[in-house]
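Sequence, please.
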């Protein structure tokens, strides 16, 4: 009786636990996953494909109203002002440093000096002591030199012949040639454009009393020429007191000659 009751209880336990088995675990079967097909109509499919392949063009450039500008005109654009620092940096980059040779090439030339001297000689001026303006009808020797040099851009020319002498001496551009054999010394070193100084032409109270500009040498007539003003009784090649003259170095007491400051030789 007791055995039967135990057997019935065991049967009930097996029935209440169906997932337990006494023959070992069984393999569990699963249902295969079937992909869900989306029903897409032909029109919808085509729409999707077109959307993927579509290239969006860039927006069109704004059109200017041609009536605002004349034909071939360009509208002005206001740019922001540049700072002083930017301008200074730009100037430093754009301006190259000049060599000493290039600096020496800047300035008036012998050709310009000769041109202005010939213009003044053509004006029919007389020698006029103390005059430095052609409008007065004449010039003296240093006034003629100062006027010509001012015309070619040399502004610091002193007024009198002795001041012009010391002007060159101070700049170490003077070559003293006085004394015995002065003429030979002069022609050995003389260059067109040089200032030539004499003394004793009148009682000036100074070592130097006369100055002229050396114009050059003409081998055809074997003659040296100077420009300037030479006394009331002297006439140059054009018959004027302010004119081109033949150089006579022994006329008066030859003192020195020198280069004109700033002139390109």
């Amino acid at each position: 009786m007791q055995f039967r009751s135990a057997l019935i209880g065991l049967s009930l336990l097996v029935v209440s636990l169906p997932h337990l088995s006494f023959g070992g675990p069984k393999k569990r079967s699963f249902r295969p996953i079937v992909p869900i097909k989306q029903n897409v109509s032909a029109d919808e499919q085509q729409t999707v494909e077109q959307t993927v392949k579509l290239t969006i063009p860039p927006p069109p450039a704004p059109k200017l109203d041609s009536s605002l500008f004349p034909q071939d005109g360009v509208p002005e654009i206001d740019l922001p002002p540049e700072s002083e620092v930017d301008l200074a940096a730009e100037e430093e980059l754009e301006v190259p440093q000049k060599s000493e040779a290039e600096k020496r090439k800047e300035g008036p030339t012998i050709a310009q000096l000769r041109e202005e001297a010939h213009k003044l000689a053509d004006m029919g001026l007389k020698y006029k002591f103390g005059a430095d303006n052609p409008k007065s009808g004449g010039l003296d020797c240093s006034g003629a030199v100062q006027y010509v040099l001012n015309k070619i851009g040399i502004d610091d020319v002193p007024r009198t012949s002795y001041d012009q002498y010391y002007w060159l001496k101070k700049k170490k551009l003077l070559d003293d040639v006085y004394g015995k054999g002065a003429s030979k010394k002069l022609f050995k070193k003389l260059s067109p454009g040089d200032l030539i100084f004499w003394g004793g032409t009148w009682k000036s109270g100074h070592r130097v009393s006369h100055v002229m500009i050396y114009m050059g040498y003409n081998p055809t007539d074997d003659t040296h020429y100077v420009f300037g003003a030479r006394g009331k009784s002297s006439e140059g090649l054009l018959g004027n007191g302010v004119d081109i003259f033949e150089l006579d170095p022994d006329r008066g007491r030859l003192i020195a000659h020198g280069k004109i400051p700033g002139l390109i030789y």
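The mean pLDDT is 78.
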